[in-house]
Write a structure and sequence with these properties.
The structure is a homodimer of 456-residue chains. Chain A contains 19 helices and 15 strands. Chain A has 456 residues and is α/β, with parallel strands linked by helices. Chain A has 2 domains: 258 residues, Rossmann fold, CATH 3.40.50; 142 residues, Rossmann fold. In chain A, the strands form 4 sheets. A 7-stranded mixed β-sheet of chain A has the order 1-4-5-15-10-11-14, sandwiched between helices. In chain A, strand 6, helix 6 and strand 7 form a beta-alpha-beta unit. Chain A is globular. Chains A and B meet through helix 6, helix 8, helix 16 and helix 18 of A and helix 6, helix 8, helix 16 and helix 18 of B.
């Protein structure tokens, strides 16, 4: 139970935060601008206008500290928000730790993850801008299902290009998209020029996120009333997620507690940012909270990737973004945490790391699954493979507190539940789960694609 | 929004009901006793003692109106309870109905359904009675996963015999059981005499619930410190579920509303009873609420089955139970709502129907899925196939209210989410879902197995 003796700390619907937090107002060092790769000059709004509506482009570059959440978005948020903040007291007892562990359960959304926080906002702003249809790509399907859900809420059409190997191996998520009325096709598909030509050359390709992005963007720029939507990395996407951390801060007040350690897993950076940025704001203004981002050893962008200008996509079509990256050619090992398999990290997170406002750690997937099983067998809920990375470090911190004999408050973002990702657990139990830690040679090789671009 | 203008009506943890409601105290006509099939005499506690602990047998026959929920069970309930009561305002707007529709979201439990309400209680009482291990059977896997979850919470071993065809076709639920530490085998298995001999004769059998029950009971009676656990039908199981309706009544008070119609889907009867019995209590004492149980046309026990003494299992090993039944040999068509494929209905529900304290309706699965898709596309959450049956009638009642121009409050039990049952939706969209309505000849044929047993 929390200090206030509740298992779940519930924030009243009427007290849901009414604004998102935009850390660009408080960053000690401003972000480097994205660059137009043709000119190497800062990319302007016009470089993005073909694929995003102007209201979202404005959010992308805004330096306003607080951005009002529109009434229409708040109304949809109430379907699952405020999400409960749980005290993980059973896990604490199991670990015999004096630490208090809290987890923010983002698995309660209809799509079972934090992704709808931005999907709903993006669908709304596109709707307002007169857009009738959104395209996107998806790997394992978390983002595709979240955007399908959000488009359905606002009456937009939605087309999802899903990496073929996931489309074939993870049929549940594509069914979920269909339930919400979206059109989901395996990528490469016959629906775009790029897809058709790629298929002709490689009829047996398993597909890749890079190919899927290229198809989604081609579809966007060649279709009427259509824009493109991205589920992570960009500034406005991270900002939409800050509702997670803002709610958590209110809930900790109710629990009469204060975070000493804040933990989230990091892929593109959206769930981590959502939890962490409001706490990093406090840190900028003098608070001592320790904020930890956790990535897989199979994709160690924050812990081993340089800060460089790189493309957001594999096909090298986006503006150059200033970020910690392993190079846009990098194809991460096939770990089950599909949401953490991204070659770069959001510019905001990269900046925050450079300015020592957070700490980065990496965890191999066997350790992550072990932590997930410990969680499921103590707290009950089965975590997503991505979430397991955050849990592993929360457990590590709780054990450290025990060894040091220190009381401590640990808060983690429980980014989603694992109901549609149970196969990784099966492999874990059968001993067939691989560890995947990158060697220095592999890292050096993967960084080759960064050569020849400007340095930030 | 509800009358009190909330999307979700949340009951404070401190106000969770502390007692279960036992309708045996209030039934206008007492239940017929179960009979020992060897003697045709009322079965006593000793007939059940080989497979159930005495504390649960006492609950089975108790006439106390209120039974204290043990502290240890309440503590576990708080992991997901009180569950939210949602106002389905988006569905209402879509239907243009003056009715207010509420749904009680039992999908928020770690196992995604209402089943843990009794699983946790049963695991606790077995633990207290010194039992170290529970056996059970499961069809699609909802009950098996709920009991695995509950046994893990109380440190009991758990062995689940899962019908082979489901074991092969629905791999996610068996993985879930493993995450919670249970041992799940395909039935018939090589772990019991009955299983081995059945396999020898029918090596390619898809298995059946009847075979799985026989294996679970054999394992129970031949193993040390082991008891058997059932997920529906029995009086104590239904009583544990009444926490659903009791919470709902408190939440309706918060919403300043009152139920005119209460709806739940019916298989063995546990989720329906959980929601309905506290409202039926009010009806017994003069309230006008209309309580509707909804079953599939493929398994119309309440609407077309006679009230008779019949076995609870296909292998004819249990005491004879007084219930609406289609005969213990009846094998329902393979509808996706696996939880509604049971040849009989709980004696308590059968009694309540005979005494006209409820109404029974049936819905074919295509209509049910259509309702489920309407729900998912308005309210967001994707319902389980069982739940879709309740939704279909809620929609029917809401449309009736519109046609009659009447305000009305409709409350339904949303028994679980459909995240692990998405294949049925896929079939629905591809037009391959079959309707399955039984003919009179089929009913007559299936009733043959009732001949030769005493009449209630």
């Amino acid at each position: 139970m929390s200090k206030s003796n509740y298992k779940k700390i519930i924030l009243d619907e009427k007290k849901i935060p009414k604004k998102w937090y935009n850390i660009q107002a408080d960053l000690p060092t401003p972000l480097h601008p994205p660059l137009n790769p043709a000119t190497n000059k800062p990319a302007g709004p016009e470089d993005l206008a073909a694929i995003f509506p102007m209201n979202l482009i404005e959010q992308e570059v805004s330096r306003e500290r607080w951005i009002d959440i529109p009434e229409e978005v708040l109304e949809k948020y109430l379907i699952w928000r405020p999400s409960p903040l749980y005290r993980a007291d059973a896990l604490e007892r199991y670990l015999k730790t004096p630490a208090r562990i809290y987890y923010k359960n983002e698995g309660v959304s209809p799509a079972c993850s934090h992704k709808p926080n931005t999907a709903v906002a993006q669908a709304y702003y596109n709707k307002v801008a007169g857009v009738k249809r959104l395209t996107t790509e998806t790997g394992a399907g978390q983002w595709g299902s979240a955007l399908s859900y959000a488009c359905n809420l606002f009456g937009l059409e939605c087309k999802v290009y899903m990496v073929r190997i996931s489309y074939d191996q993870k049929p549940y998520r594509k069914m979920l998209m269909k339930v919400w009325g979206a059109d989901c096709v395996a990528s490469p598909s016959n629906d775009t020029n790029f897809g058709r030509s790629y298929l002709k050359q490689h009829p047996d390709t398993p597909g890749s996120l890079g190919i899927a992005i290229s198809e989604a963007i081609e579809d966007c720029v060649t279709s009427k009333d259509t824009k493109y939507s991205l589920g992570s990395v960009l500034n406005h996407v991270l900002m939409h997620q800050t509702i997670i951390g803002l709610e958590t801060q209110e809930q900790l007040k109710i629990a009469e507690d204060k975070a000493d350690v804040v933990i989230g897993c990091v892929g593109g950076g959206s769930n981590f940012a959502g939890m962490a940025l409001p706490f990093i704001k406090d840190k900028i203004y003098g608070d001592k909270v320790n904020v930890i981002g956790v990535e897989p050893t199979a994709c160690p962008t924050l812990t081993r990737g340089p800060f460089a200008y790189d493309f957001g996509d594999t096909a090298a079509t986006t503006p150059l973004l200033p970020m910690h990256t392993l190079g846009h050619d990098f194809v991460p090992a096939p770990i089950h945490a599909g949401g953490l398999r991204y070659h770069g990290v959001a510019p905001i997170i990269s900046r925050v790391l450079l300015d020592k406002l957070m700490e980065a750690r990496s965890v191999d997937q066997v350790t992550a699954y072990k932590a997930g099983v410990t969680f499921a067998r103590t707290e009950g809920f089965v975590p997503a493979p991505e979430t397991n990375h955050a849990i592993a470090i929360a457990i590590e911190e709780a054990i450290k507190a025990r060894e040091e004999g220190k009381e401590k408050t640990i808060v983690m973002c429980w980014s989603g539940n694992g109901m549609l990702d149970l196969t990784g657990y099966e492999k874990y139990f059968s001993g067939k789960l691989e560890e995947y830690t990158m060697s220095d040679e592999e890292i050096q090789k993967s960084l080759a694609s960064l050569k020849g671009y400007p340095k930030p």
